[in-house]
Design goal:
Elements (H helix, E strand, L loop, with lengths): L1 E10 L2 E11 L4 E5 L6 H8 L7 E6 L2 E2 L4 H5 L2 E4 L11 H11 L7 H12 L14 H13 L5 E5 L7 H14 L4 E6 L2 H7 L2 E6 L2 E6 L1 H10 L1 E8 L2 H9 L4 E10 L2 E8 L6 H10 L4 E8 L2 H8 L11 E3 L6 E2 L1
Parallel strand pairs: 3-8, 3-9, 6-7, 7-8, 10-15
Antiparallel strand pairs: 1-2, 1-4, 4-5, 9-10, 11-13, 11-14, 12-13, 15-16
Helix pairs in contact: 3-4, 4-5
Length: about 325
């Protein structure tokens, strides 16, 4: 288990990670999701002991990564965004070197190297020089070195960057297999990667954790929350007042106003379909509807909403409880 408590990292006046706290339970695949520059790599580098924190604590199975790094690092295998390989070595030579550097017992080195090559599907290229391998195979070599020493937790920073579609599918399957024997933390800024692989998702924005949940619960929230888009001829304030007076309308936001017409995005609560009531309310007010469209909120919409500048002031983590299905702040 990994416990991160009140973690912060400052670079001069810039705060890369701000008061971050979360727990990673054993035996699951976690997705660490956020836009570029959100603080994912910084957090992973701190958790793995590659980078010092400004403040906070990281415990790996009870060992403090700063106070007891040797014991803590035995519990972790790490693949940075750029695999830490020596390009002029063969795959086999490199993995032998890493095994020795990690302190694997001499009698166990060959067996461990053979095992991680088999698990990551690189046995057939074991004698090839790393620099001539494809991007996908180099990523696999990077994962193989992370597995040496049999760590309980594997941390993968953007493992699918630069891979072609076939390689991405193969990498997803490899990570799923790793999740059967290890706790896996996988970072990405691509939602489809995370939702396809992970048991639980942590969303980070501008160094803050803004949501923790399962992909299924996040998807359910998207299915339940619907947005009605309207274009209406009339005064903006009058249109908004009329719409907001309809039962079942949870919110209404003006998105544009031009040439006597206004556009709105309207949130509808629960299973209520307000379209007919809105139609008659605006018709009675002699404000004709020029366009009406209803959309369910997608996972991408939820992600963008949680990581937008509008959400920046919200410091509490949002979580969907499995038995409730709504986001709580």
């Amino acid at each position: 288990m990994i416990e991160v408590k009140n973690l912060s990292k400052n670079y001069g006046s810039h705060t890369a990670v701000k008061d971050l706290s979360f727990t990673v339970e054993s035996g699951q695949v976690y997705g660490f999701l956020g836009p570029n520059g959100a603080g994912k790599s910084t957090t992973m580098n701190i958790i793995t002991g590659c980078l010092a924190a400004t403040q906070g604590q990281v415990l790996i199975d009870g060992y403090d990564i700063f106070d007891n790094p040797k014991e803590a690092k035995k519990k972790i295998g790490y693949l940075p965004e750029l695999p830490p390989v020596y390009p002029d070595m063969s795959v086999y030579e490199y993995l032998l070197f890493v095994a020795r550097a990690k302190g694997v017992a001499k009698a166990d080195i060959k067996a461990q190297v053979d095992a991680v090559m088999a698990k990551t599907g690189i046995s057939d290229v074991s004698r090839r020089i790393i620099k001539v391998l494809s991007k996908g195979y180099r990523q696999r070599v990077g994962i193989a070195q992370a597995l040496l020493g049999d760590p309980e937790t594997i941390i993968l920073d953007e493992p699918m960057v630069g891979l072609d579609p076939k390689q991405i599918i193969e990498m997803r399957e490899l990570i799923r297999q790793l999740g059967t024997d290890h706790t896996v933390i996988l970072s990405s800024h691509i939602l489809s990667e995370i939702s396809a692989i992970c048991d639980r998702v942590m969303i980070i924005s501008k160094g803050r954790l803004v949501a923790v949940d399962t992909p299924e619960n996040l998807a359910r929230v998207g299915e339940e929350k619907r947005i009605l888009r309207l274009t209406v001829k009339g005064d903006a304030d009058a249109v908004k007042e009329a719409v907001c007076s309809v039962d079942g309308v949870s919110e209404a936001e003006l998105t544009s106003s031009e040439d006597g017409c206004v556009s709105l995005e309207i949130g509808m609560s629960g299973d209520t379909d307000c379209r007919e009531a809105i139609f008659y309310r605006l018709a009675d007010a002699k404000m004709p509807i020029l366009a009406m469209q209803i959309n369910k909120v997608s996972l991408e919409d939820i992600f963008l909403d949680l990581t937008s500048d509008k959400a920046e002031d919200e410091t509490e983590v949002q979580e969907v409880e499995a038995d409730e299905g709504d986001i709580q702040a």
